[in-house]
Records
---
Amino acid sequence: MATDVDLTNPIFHSEEQATAHMEADRWPDGVTCPFCGSVNVRRMGGKTQAGMFLCNDCRDKFTVRTGTVFERSHIPLHKWLLATHIMAASKKSVSALQLQRMLGLGSYRSAWFMCHRIREAMKPAKIGPLGGAGRTVESDETVIGGKAKNRAYKKEPKKQTVVTLVERDGKSHSFHVANIKAKTLRETITRVVDRQSHLMTDEFPAYWGIGEKHFEGRHSTVNHSANEYARLGGFVHINTAESRFGLMKRAVFGAHHSVSEAHLPRYLIEWDFKWNTRKMKDGERAALALKGAEGKRLTYRPAH
Ligand SMILES: [Zn+2]
């Protein structure tokens, strides 16, 4: 794995160092109670209370994991930091099995939970808006799944539709949608894309009304069947969205044999995150994922 992340860094191997690193990262201006926001807190002592703080105002106890995606996990923090760095630094997706081996975890299930929690950390604080006056946003749809590895034994996985919106030279947001009817596409696009943008799509008829009504006709279409990607001096194309789909499909089917409907949105989060941070160094991307881990608490109950 080509990376500027130093995997020999002690924060990935010592629980004490990992805890100190995350405390400094999360609370650069001093430890703050995650329940009431008070800075009137004190570090508790003793071996059994290592890493624990007591809030003198609300009297609650907490650690640096409280209110993060690392909360309520028996896996040591240094392994969480390592997993976050590995996942953020890898160009492709890392499978739970790979992570289990790399981290020496006892169970596949633990590795699987870690992967999904870290994906949750990669979720952007807000979605959109993409584009704006003079900017171009491409929309493209793709179908994922429907191909079992071994048809003789496995039921064919359900096909799932994904819509990706990509601002040219900008960010992307992908959505798992129920269908590609005009209503669904319109809702997704108008929620995320600034209406001053120029919309670029394929010739799927559902887009016509959207372009006319919501973008005042600032809408170009590309005919997939004809060889006209370079029409208008290269302006009319949806190559950005399409190359992104290529990457995503290879990653999803290369690393993960099947992606269930319930978990697809989190794989999309990981892919958008990697696309949107593609100009960053691996270490910067990993630091951003860690920041996301600190700001979120896991609310879903994973079912597997
Ligand atoms: Zn408090």
---
Amino acid sequence: MELLEAGNSLPSGPDAAKRKVCYFYDPEVGNYYYGQGHPMKPHRIRMTHSLLSHYGLLGHMSVLKPFPARDRDLCRFHADDYVSFLRSITPETQQDQLRQLKRFNVGEDCPVFDGLYSFCQTYAGGSVGGAVKLNHGLCDIAINWAGGLHHAKKCEASGFCYVNDIVLAILELLKHHDRVLYVDIDIHHGDGVEEAFYTTDRVMTVSFHKFGDYFPGTGDIRDIGYGKGKYYSLNVPLDDGIDDESYQSLFKPIIGKVMEVFKPGAVVLQCGADSLSGDRLGCFNLSIKGHAECVRYMRSFNVPLLLLGGGGYTIRNVARCWCYETGVALGVEVEDKMPPHEYFEYFGPDYTLHVAPSNMENKNSRQLLEGIRSTLLDQLSKLRHAPSVQFQERPPDTELPEADEDQEDADERWDPDSDMEVDDERKPVSNGMQSGRVKRETADAEIKDQKDQKGVAEHEDEVDRMAEDGASSKASDVISMLTEETARIKVEPDNSNKPSDPPAPVFSKY
Ligand SMILES: [Zn+2]
């Protein structure tokens, strides 16, 4: 197991000014359609691709078509019955499955549409494929703009997300890296990823998001992880109208400190573009350059980096943003004047890549920002040493049969560098992943009331009981490497001092 220090761990060398970039794209992805009036539009991925193509950026990176994730790949995080449901449900049969739809939270925000399962396989395949490429040192940065669906839970769809490609990609990275950092700049809290790794110290999650009467309602600054994972979840709650300068006054000092103390072997950056100014569902005021500054900064650490998409509902700006950020990944400054291409008319009247932020009020006062910054740096000071892991056998890699877009022979799509022997046998071992919703521990023990204390006790009992039962787990490959904590923790959430999920008008929240 290589234990590489931050700053010199790129396959192409410590000072590589240029990075070797793998970009995953499936030409079918733009055809999936959530339905009339639904704000989530996979077409934005095709618009992004078209911009990349006409700016000439595709020639600077390996363009790969993701191999669809298989059932067993998805089942490394998701429940078997949930994956079976996603595979079998169709718009025609959904009327006969009302109970299942309700159980898995599929129907309204997360509708059933034609090709739903292959859509999931495609976007998850790109993220896992990117992780495999990074693991093998075949690139420095892997990009999958179709991924980043951070709200999906183990057995539940949420917030336009069905399977959690980010959790799956992180599980893949954990096969080769002791520690993985997850950073989320979507305007919404990265709840699905945080929950999955809430009790492990091998994955640190840091989410910057709008907090307060906003979907999904989680992401309080006091939610810091639980058990072994205490201090390994960070939440940065923000208010409406945040601008580039305010955002970076938190992002850089916090992420800089995280890199220093956690020393991740790989980083996953979810680049949700609904934090941009003028987003149809968002309320922040970031420019594309301000948003991309997060990519630039993460890239500067010379650690293998997986860039994923996420939210983003003013689709012309999403395409602008992810095109510009692809340029940042490559070390190419993209011209503002847009080249003619098939979606050119979307970008009028200026036909430029950048758009000015608005004059909306920034509700994040200097004082508020300073308070957030010092609270989080204080939490980080409790993380003095990067944890090390006692490794057992490395689990086999996920096969990586993705291909260059223009490759035709399916047999040639198999990556010769990938370990092809895959052990199909599921071993019942436990992992450190969180499966249920677990009561959140707050940083300040003082604020816990009696009820809270009781909740913790119950939680610990539950963990012990599950351990004694030898509860088997999914994630068969990774489990032995994650913490020795028990797999299936099932504890009801205790929301006694947390905001409850806001009542949920369809489509107004993500
Ligand atoms: Zn979002």
---
Amino acid sequence: MSSVTIQPVNSSHPELGALVQNIDLAHLSEEDFQVLRNTLYTHNVVCIKSQGKLTPKNQAELTRRFDPEAMTYGHGTTIDAKRSILHPDLKTIPYQPEVQVIGNGFVPEYEGLTDIKLRHPHHRTFHKTVIPDELDLDYTRFYRWHIDAALYGKLNPPLVTSLLAVKVPKNRRQTLLYDDGTGDTLDVPLGTTAFVSGYNMFDNLSLEQKEFVLTSKIEYAPHPYVWISTTKSRPDGLGMVSEGKEVPLEDLPPIERESDIQILPMVWRNPVTGRFALQIHPSVVRKIHLKDGSVIDDLAKVRDIVHGLQRPGIAPKFVYAHDWEEGDLVLFNNHGVLHSVVGAFAENEVRLFRQCNLAASRPPCGPQYPEVVA
Ligand SMILES: [Fe+2]
């Protein structure tokens, strides 16, 4: 019998967040792994405390366990493209290229990397409007709601992402502003990672919306993170503002094969519970393919439709904001949640995290319509 214990972090929303104890991640038996996998797909975000000794190799092996046939790092080498918005935020561990170092501040040496300058993404670099500098210590925003995924070429969205908190600056709290006219706010720990459930997002749709998302597909932009590098985000971090500023297709790197453009279901099925998640990466959507074969290609309209579907699901009561402590190892179901960086650190607040995910061995599992509209 496995002695692993599981404790949901929020009894009213057990599907988002659980604490897992009595588990040895570096020497994980098959039985304990199955308990962990079931827990992950039931609670979608799980935290195992005091894992500071886990090596980058352990972390990569643990992450691969969820998808042994997985490919390389989830973004492959696409983050190397200098114009990609992801380029400044990730540093690769030289001997374990599936594992990236992220964080804030200057780190002289870590796992073969030297003189690392890390930068916690700040909304002022990404949003169309910003919180004034004088309020920056106390107020923050969701930086960018997303799925960890290249969304281009042969790289399937990773099944699972692992995040290890190596160094966490002394904690304080901030007020998160949605700044979208609703007046919504959320009290969050500094530098939290915010999660919302795609299952809840789906469940709260109307019958008509469910029919729409079950039968429509999203086409993502080619070289998506270069394409949006000249655009700005909505204040709630849920998609871009439409101003016609995307990098023109002819100025993107070449599209080698038409099949490199990814067209994915809007709804992805949970492999353990069978539940449906509304899983759309809002920043890089380009077109919607409808059931009848027609295509919505008016970008402003596409973004408004996606925003209308997703915004209810990021309401304050649905957000799980993880309060990081050093040694926390968090695994999340990247096919069932959206997540966002939050917060603003001073330059001398050093934060060091390790992130690992692997491009999945298979595309996301979509719904077999019409099995559920209930
Ligand atoms: Fe991420």
---
Amino acid sequence: MNLEQKSDFSRGWRMSVAPMLDWSDKHCRYLHRLITKHTRLYTEMVTTGALTHGDPRRHLRFDETEHPVALQLGGSDPAELAKCAQLGQDWGYDEINLNCGCPSDRVQRGAFGACLMNEPGLVADGVKAMRDKVDIPVTVKHRIGIDKIESYDFVADFVGRVSEAGCEVFIVHARNAWLQGLSPKENREIPPLRYDLAWQLKRDFPQLTIAVNGGLKTPEQFDEQLQHVDGVMVGREAYYNPWIMQDWDQRYYGGSACALSQDEIELAMVDYMEREAVEDGTPWYAIARHMLGMRHGQRGARRWRQVWSNHKLKPLPAREVWAQARAVLLEDQLKAGDSASA
Ligand SMILES: Cc1cc2nc3c(=O)[nH]c(=O)nc-3n(C[C@H](O)[C@H](O)[C@H](O)COP(=O)(O)O)c2cc1C
């Protein structure tokens, strides 16, 4: 790859939405894709066990509009990983990402996730086995250390060895995973963030694509990171406040900002709910739960959210719920307009 091809390749990871179990499912990604066309979207982690023993369609089905979309795998057995990577490619995913950052007990018992950072040789074997099977990029998402290991050498050695197996893209959640004593949620909040280690990785491995993740919320923060690394991955902020992504295509890809208004996006989601109900029997509330952050910070948002999450409305068709949500939103906005002009 020459320098120009290399920078085109890296651009693919400039902005991404993180893999989030139970959150970044296909419905959530459909919403995010209505807001931004270029941002890379990640599935929730799917374990190799779930894919080989369960129903692949349930885990892998996605909408054509979701591209570019990456499948995140959880597992450690190279042969199983290779089989699942192949499945992912066959289903049309654009990337296979290996989870080396999840600290949950369940994942540790399965000996994958963050504890794999202790076994760079095994990760390298997994990456190699997957690359032998698929043509799409095989990437790794990891932490900067585990437990009390704070040294840069630990993560540099991990990245060095895994890159020798052919992994060219590393997504660095810039905090340690503490494998004992913290819940997964605490592990996203308590170990301190050290972006400087991710920046150092980019300096020491300039040929690799390095994206940084963890605690990033504002355009100013994203811009600062992009001075040092190739990409930014955003998790919770994108989920709680998806409209922040409305100008990402313009800001980070030289395209145009989202052409749809929030009202149009909400209506497009109602169309999608109706389609999903017919095609797959999905209830509207399994989809609507992902858009509760859409009106973040707006007048009327609270009552609008209450309608879309009201259990009593579950039997109603999506479009009727939409009409009720719209009515309370407009009412609150009108009230605000009246008091402003009074
Ligand atoms: C609800 C939830 C589920 C998550 N599930 C996964 C997962 O399946 N795989 C993974 O690599 N990280 C997972 N993460 C971690 C995120 O990908 C990300 O690394 C973390 O939230 C830090 O980024 P943020 O501060 O932008 O949210 C999850 C995070 C949340 C909030």
